[in-house]
User: Fold these one by one.
Assistant:
Number 1:
Amino acid sequence: MRAIVTVAGHDRVGIIAEVCSLLASLNVNILDINQTVMQEFFTMTMLVDTSAASGSFERIKKALADKGEAMALSIRIQQEDIFNAMYRI
């Protein structure tokens, strides 16, 4: 199953490394990644594959939310079909 991970917050060193390390520890494969920094604000969007994940989608969601809280960032994951339905014009 594919999903979209979004990360947003104040830029600092190590954001990509920490989020990618967490996903790797959960056996979530990153298929595509896009990030940008606008002045001091960091944003990243990732397309990931959770089909071989070592836990449920809810476990991944909680782990990312907890990591976001610890890093003072917003980190969210949505199933690809839900994300597409929300942003379809």
Number 2:
Amino acid sequence: MTTISKKLFGKASDGQDVYAYTLDTGAGVSATVLTYGGVLNRLLVTDKNGNTKNVVLGYSYLENYEKRGAYYGSLVGRCCNRIKKSRFTLDGREYILPENDKANQLHGGPEGFSRKVWEAKENADGSLSLYLESSDGDMGYPGNLQVKVTYSLRGRALSIRYEAETDAPTVVNLTNHAYFDITGAGSGRTLESLLWLDCDKMTDTDKELIPNGEILDVCGTPYDFTTPKAVGRDIGCDYRLLSYFNGYDTNYYKKDYTGKAAPIASLTDPENGLCMTVITDLPCVQLYTTNSVDEGAPDFADGARHTLHCGVCLETQYAPDAINSPEAESVILRPGKKFDSTTTLSFND
């Protein structure tokens, strides 16, 4: 039986109260979610030796989320990842979006879903649903969009279900941007984590991380995680754009994708065997390895320092800039249809 506790986390700059909800099953996993940005603020996991550690990077104070951004643990939308030149054409009409990543739009724009205060509802089954209304024209996107994201904790698995409906054709591509450290936030061993990806292809991009239309095989390259290897083993290789980006910031395609929920990635602590498996019904996952650090950025909770490569992001998604590619239909939501996707983080016993 999942229990939920609630406490005030802080007051947003616009005066709204922000709450922290903690879900706990008593099975060695608990998750704390904020109404600001739908942030997954803490994810405590007990390993087989009885040791409990936080495996996501999160701030202790609301002001750090508001001032620093970086999407730590937040819900991202309307459209995660990048849209080239901050524009797209839908049903013959061009839409111009506000830029926030050079000339491109990133993760829904400068005031995307990660910067909103969501309405929360505790459900009878112990899950937590967050609601957001995104009005027509919000960050340049057409249509009034109703969004619902539900965090559910069952045993040792945390599920995030994304639902959205619109009254006009629009673009939707939702994800959670948690920075994981399966070795424990603040351990200093992040790059020792063993990463497996059930993905044999990746998106080739330019130096602004905009897809160039090429899908590359990863087999035998530093981008190959089809056999588990340490995140840091090849991170310093002078290969393609690895050295330019100072690490991985790469969209991978799942092998033999069927549209049904299946494992796409896992992170394992080689020291104690604690493993997190990412299960999703989406076709892609963006691997990001915290490749830059802001000067003066505050440290995270649990004594975790804000350092290079201190977290690993596994953002389940549709492809970046899909709306400007042959994959456009994957991210177009129309009236009468529903965006409905679930990603689950499952931990071994």
Number 3:
Amino acid sequence: MEIKPFNQGNIDLVAEMAEGVWGKNQGAHGSAVARIFCQYLTRYYLYSADLALQAEDEDGMQAIAFAWLPGETNSAATWLRNQLPAVTDDEQQKLLTNERYLMRTDEELLSKMLPNSAKLSFFISKKKGYGTSVLNALIERLRKRGIEWLYLWTDSSCNWQYYPKHGFEFVGEAKVPEYSTDEEEYTNQIYRKHIKI
């Protein structure tokens, strides 16, 4: 395994990985709206090239970890607006609802972050052990910048159990009305980890 800076040419590969996890909330796997959402998600969470890493082996990219520092911006919203004409009105509304959900949840997280913190903005792995390696490499980069805390939010569709097992403490939980149904409550959780040595 090798940890490298994230290759932006791999955005579609990351989106494919994400679609297996988050695409189900967007409709049928492989649908236009699921594909666009997962490509947008990758772009939405990609900020600093220095804080975007990938783990790869002879089979290619296996895991990624991206971090965000307060104040950083990107062009994901513009990219999404350019995709909307290719989908139906209903699909457009679903994509825009998801965009509002991501932005609202990030604002809630930002309000809870202590000074000198970063956000683990995107983290996904398809091979056991690779995620932990790429996350540790990202944490080391954040430490070198003097960052003391790493925050993240995740939700009930993800493997949130990973975080307490790897030194993250639970900060809070909230219901997600966009995805909750009468049969099942969908929630998101906030975690943080003190990373200063």
Number 4:
Amino acid sequence: MNTSVKRLTIGAMMVALSVILSLVIIFKLPYGGSVTAFCMLPVCLFAYNYGLRWGILAGFALGILQILTSTSLGVSVMMEDFWRFAAMVSLDYLLAYACLGFTAVMRGKMKNERVGFALGICIAAAARLLAHAVSGYIFFRQYAEWFFSQDGFSFGLWILDNLSGQGLAIFYSFFYNASFLVPETLITVIMGLALFVPAQKLINRS
């Protein structure tokens, strides 16, 4: 089989598997964002095996499919301000998921390949968090004070006493997005360490 065709085929399979896993929700945040059954893992595996360019391409494809399957993207929002909607999904989906390709930067950098893969996942997740945080700051920073003033959120009151303005908005965006992406990353790393060897054998056999 032609090398490019093989990579496209395996990439398509990994993207499809990521989409399926993204539908298995472990918990969902009330205002967007959810922790899934390690949906990042298949694309991260593909990126680690086939390199940065192919990994970014697979992540970008996953982002497109996430847009198409998302129930949180309302048509009314798109019709109200198409360019705002386009910018938001570009950051939160296309760029954020393309960042999964950065898993590849750790390939061959560690003697223990499993550890290298786990670190690659963390780097990719950090890049994805940055994309989400930029989107959150641009489009949702007006909710920062309201978010931290909710009843029963004692930590939020401390934040409001110590942060305001731009600092509060930036912290809010990182905090909110990290609240689902950090546990998602931990689950992905754990499963990645557990499945790395059999997954590598399956990909190489393919």
